[in-house]
Recover the amino acids of this structure.
């Protein structure tokens, strides 16, 4: 049985390293900038990516893409797709496709699927915010997925179908039918609804609303996801691939980051070794605070600062993330291309925490505070 390394490695073999496509990205309009590149005749998801960010004045940041800018690009792009594109609806960690007329007209659903496939194969973070039921529909088809009224993102529609489902007498049932008659008309449902079949009819209408109403966007999104062989891999290896698309039940923990970032210490017995060990203790306490203190910098923010990703890529980070120590800097710095975070040496934990918080919270770009 193929391992996930084998599967993703096979997909990465499709990347043509000799041909490059340039993305010029404006941070405040990432998706718009991305679409301009994807719509050019020379674009191909199989080409190596060159990401160039610009600041608000339109000046190049001059970042050489050794991995960090690319990971940052995919994170920002996926975040915009999830939160503000209008193509997805539902809870932030369990999205279904919605109906967006403009996105359908401009074929943005196809580009969204293509972008997600590229993020997985080119080493970006995984798009783990889709509904598990949407992923199941991608694997085996919408007809195999059971949808409930609670899956409907629009609260008015969900409430109306709940009233239909929970009707206890004919009067309540007829009132609920009047409230939902537009759904019966749009879905083509011609069943005569009764107290005995109201549950089944409610499920049918919910299925239509969530998966059949959006069938055109679904098919284009699916075709986009087929780029680089990602859809085929998902269908052939569902148990290994599907967790790239929906939120893992296990949240990022302080122990995860402590294990992820390898520590580079000076020679044992030296003066530097002594204060680096003290700072290492501060770093580990800082990770604990990030996990359990709701007012603190989050673990995801620390990971973004150091690597450009808020979740690890499909095959992990390359090079391996590390933590180093700075004796001549007040605030932390990072190099997202090398996945290095450099933390300041301090005498007290309070000073360490305050300067770490300020540096991370006020950084932009690639971790340079």
């Amino acid at each position: 049985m193929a391992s996930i390394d084998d599967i993703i490695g096979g997909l990465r073999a499709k990347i043509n390293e000799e041909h490059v496509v340039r993305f010029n990205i404006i941070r405040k309009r990432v998706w718009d900038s991305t679409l301009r590149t994807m719509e050019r005749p020379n674009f191909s998801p199989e080409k190596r990516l060159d990401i160039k960010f610009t600041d608000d004045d339109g000046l190049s940041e001059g970042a050489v893409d050794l991995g960090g800018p690319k990971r940052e690009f995919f994170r920002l792009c996926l975040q915009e797709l999830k939160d503000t594109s209008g193509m997805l609806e539902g809870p932030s960690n369990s999205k279904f496709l919605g109906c967006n007329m403009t996105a359908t007209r401009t074929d943005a659903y196809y580009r969204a699927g293509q972008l997600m496939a590229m993020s997985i194969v080119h080493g970006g973070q995984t798009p783990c915010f889709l509904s598990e039921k949407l992923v199941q529909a991608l694997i085996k088809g919408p007809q195999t997925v059971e949808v409930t009224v609670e899956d409907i993102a629009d609260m008015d529609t969900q409430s109306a179908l709940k009233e239909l489902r929970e009707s206890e007498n004919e009067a309540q049932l007829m009132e609920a039918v009047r409230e939902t008659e537009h759904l019966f008309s749009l879905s083509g449902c011609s069943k005569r609804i009764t107290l005995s079949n109201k549950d089944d009819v409610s499920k049918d209408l919910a299925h239509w609303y969530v998966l059949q109403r959006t069938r055109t966007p679904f098919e284009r999104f699916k075709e986009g996801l087929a780029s680089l062989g990602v859809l085929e891999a998902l269908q052939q290896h569902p148990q290994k691939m599907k967790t790239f698309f929906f939120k893992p039940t296990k949240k990022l923990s302080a122990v995860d980051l402590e294990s992820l970032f390898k520590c580079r210490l000076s020679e044992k017995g030296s003066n530097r070794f002594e204060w680096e060990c003290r700072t290492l203790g501060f770093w580990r306490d800082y990770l604990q605070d990030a996990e359990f203190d709701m007012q603190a910098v989050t673990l995801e923010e620390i990971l973004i600062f150091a690597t450009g990703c808020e979740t690890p890529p499909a095959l992990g980070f390359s090079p391996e993330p590390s933590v180093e120590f700075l004796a001549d800097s007040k605030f932390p710095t990072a190099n997202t291309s090398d996945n290095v975070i450099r933390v300041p040496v301090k005498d007290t934990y309070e000073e360490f925490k305050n300067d770490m918080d300020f540096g991370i919270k006020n950084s932009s770009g690639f971790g340079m505070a």
Q: What stands out?
A: Confidence is low (pLDDT under 50) at residues 60-64.
